């Protein structure tokens, strides 16, 4: 038991030290896995390296490369521009619009890619007299919703890790749960902050006496409205490829086959790079190698934990909790609390395998617990101590609003640590237990 406890304590210590030192957790964790496996557990190096998740690597590289091409050739920018045109002057619809836009971008491989909407959304909120907190939460919840798409990182890591561990989880079910939960949170944000949006008033610009209405997206004085870039052939081809990828994932999931999103993305990406080699080369830098190493390092260490029986030890400890529902609440709360300050991807990669012993006891439905754990670890990301929250604060246009944003996002993020597990375990895990 001593070896298992040392390995678990080392796992926690590496997380904490790497975060404090702002080091890459995946690289440090991989080295720790090798050291722990060789020097403490006496494992063979081949057994340690075998824990590196090649299947998830293919998924991440294929998806980020494919959508990297769409970004490099300008297709994503044009799609966002057209979506904004559809909204027009309907100010009340703007937070929902940015939720959908952010979710769409987040679903295209990397959740943090959705942060490209933050500067745009917060600027639009300032001009349209929308409470920045409402717009910030719209972007944050949209990012969380899209992140669990079968084509995006959180979805890939969560259901990919679950399926590798033998837990049946339909990726579309995970995505649907994430979308519903985040839409509910957006509705709550409308109720809490919608009434604080400043009334649309007629204001005079400082130069030239030009008048603009708060509800109209007029250019500033002396500023020309930018020309809208047209769709060219390559953009239309890219849109077709994007729709083809999404359709392939949906159809394969519906017919009962687990879609290999990475291989599909490589196939569509290969077609696009043959058509447009220049942007294909540019897209290479969009491959999220940092995340590949992050997930790979953590899962490799978890593999060592599994080899030496540390995961079974956690299962025994979970078995000591005679109420499975309480154990589910605890693990979801831990995921949310740590994710509010650290890498959500890392938490998902670490806690999904560690939740397996609780599932194997038979008291908790695996799909329900994994969905709850994944979403609980994501909805706290608007905390200003995380990348998402910090970006929302930094892109708030009015400097006087930033302290308020920091305080409110802190309260919102930390409240989700409690509210998320209670609601998701109550609405997913508890009913699933009743029907097992």
Automatic annotation (TrEMBL):
Family annotation (InterPro entries): MatC_N
Keyword Repeat attached: no
Membrane-traversing stretches: 28-45, 52-72, 92-122, 134-160, 172-193, 234-255, 261-277, 289-305, 325-352, 412-435
Keyword Nucleus in record: no
Region (Disordered): 207-227
Name of the featured protein: SLC13 family permease
All copies of domain Dicarboxylate carrier MatC N-terminal, residue ranges: 1-147
Top-level taxonomy: Bacteria, Bacillati, Actinomycetota, Actinomycetes, Pseudonocardiales
UniProt keyword terms in alphabetical order: Membrane, Transmembrane, Transmembrane helix
Pfam families reported in the protein's UniProt record: MatC_N
């Amino acid at each position: 038991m001593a070896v298992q406890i040392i390995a678990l304590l080392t796992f926690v210590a590496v997380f904490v030290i790497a975060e404090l030192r702002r080091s890459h957790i995946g690289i440090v964790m991989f080295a720790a896995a090798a050291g722990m496996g060789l020097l403490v557990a006496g494992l063979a190096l081949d057994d340690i390296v075998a824990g590196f998740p090649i299947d998830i690597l293919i998924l991440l590289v294929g998806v980020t490369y494919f959508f990297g091409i769409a970004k490099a050739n300008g297709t994503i920018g044009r799609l966002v521009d057209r979506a904004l045109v559809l909204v027009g002057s309907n100010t009340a619809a703007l937070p929902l619009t940015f939720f959908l836009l952010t979710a769409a971008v987040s679903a295209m491989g990397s959740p943090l890619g959705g942060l490209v909407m933050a500067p745009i959304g917060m600027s639009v909120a300032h001009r349209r007299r929308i409470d920045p907190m409402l717009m910030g939460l719209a972007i944050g919840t949209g990012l969380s919703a899209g992140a669990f798409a079968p084509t995006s990182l959180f979805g890939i890591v969560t259901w990919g890790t679950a399926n590798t561990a033998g837990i049946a989880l339909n990726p579309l079910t995970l995505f649907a749960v994430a979308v519903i939960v985040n839409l509910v949170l957006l509705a709550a944000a409308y109720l809490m902050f919608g009434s604080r949006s400043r009334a649309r008033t007629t204001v005079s610009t400082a130069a030239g006496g030009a008048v603009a209405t708060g509800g109209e997206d007029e250019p500033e004085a002396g500023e020309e409205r930018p020309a809208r870039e047209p769709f060219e052939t390559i953009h239309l081809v890219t849109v077709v490829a994007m729709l083809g990828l999404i359709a392939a994932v949906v159809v394969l999931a519906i017919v009962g086959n687990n879609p290999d999103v990475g291989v599909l993305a490589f196939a569509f990406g290969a077609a696009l790079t043959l058509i447009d080699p220049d942007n294909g080369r540019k897209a290479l830098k969009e491959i999220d190698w940092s995340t590949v190493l992050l997930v790979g390092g953590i899962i490799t260490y978890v593999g060592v934990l599994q080899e030496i029986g540390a995961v079974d030890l956690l299962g025994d400890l979970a078995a000591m909790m005679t109420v499975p529902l309480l154990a589910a609440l605890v693990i979801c709360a831990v995921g949310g609390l740590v994710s509010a300050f650290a890498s959500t991807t890392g938490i998902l990669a670490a806690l999904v395998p560690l939740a397996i012993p609780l599932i194997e006891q038979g008291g908790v439905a695996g799909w329900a617990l994994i969905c709850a754990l994944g979403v609980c670890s994501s909805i706290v990301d608007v905390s200003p101590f995380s990348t998402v929250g910090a970006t929302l604060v930094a892109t708030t246009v009015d400097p006087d609003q930033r302290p308020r944003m920091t305080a409110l996002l802190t309260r919102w993020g930390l409240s989700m640590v409690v509210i998320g597990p209670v609601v998701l375990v109550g609405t997913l895990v508890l009913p699933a237990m009743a029907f097992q």
